[in-house]
Amino acid sequence: MRISERLLTLYTPWLAGKLRQTQVPGLKVLRIICEHWYTVSDLEIPALSRLVAWMNNFPYNSRTPDLLPLPPTSTVEDHILLLSACDMLCIEEGVKIASERLSEGISSCPLSPDDVKLLWYMFGNTPENVETIALNLAMHKTDKDEYLLWFLQEELPPEHTNDLLHRAQYWKAEIARDAGEAT
Fold first, then answer.
1. From 58's CA, which of 20, 130, 134, 144 has a CA 20 to 30 Å away?
2. 49 within 8 A of 1, measured Cβ to Cβ
3. pTM for the complete prediction?
C-alpha cells in the first residue's frame, strides 16, 4: 500500500525516522513486524489499508496539523481494524479511542464469526478475550448459532473452543439467574 511520506510525517511524525530508502529512487518503506504471519491478510493489511485510505482522503487542517481525526467506525470489525492499525503505527490516542469504541460495540451487538476471528487474532487466547467473547455469545444468545459454532470448531483449537463454549454457558446461566432475581 502506498502513502505519501508527507502524510506519514504529518500525522505520525514519530515514524518518519523509521522510513528506509530502497534501491528505487524516491521510494521509501516502513517495516512493520507482525506477530503472526497467518493474521496478515485478515487483520494487518485491511487495518492499515483502511487507515491509509482515510489519511489519503482526509483534508489537511493547517490549524491542527498533527491531529488526524480517526475514521468513523460502526461495526465491531471496523473497531478491531482501527485498533490494530493505530497499534501498529503507535498512535496512542487512536488506540485509546478505538479500544473504547470496541468495548461499546462488543457490549451492544452480537459478534459475527468474522468478529470472533479478528478478536482472536488481535488478542489471542487470553482470559479477558475468552470472557469477552463468551459473555457476548451468552448475552445475545448466539452460542447455538450453527455458522458461529462451525467457525469456532474449524478455526480454533478444540480446547479453546470447548473453553469458550463452557464460559458462554456459564454466562448464559448467570444472566438467566439475574433475570429471575430481577422479576
1. 20
2. yes
3. 0.81
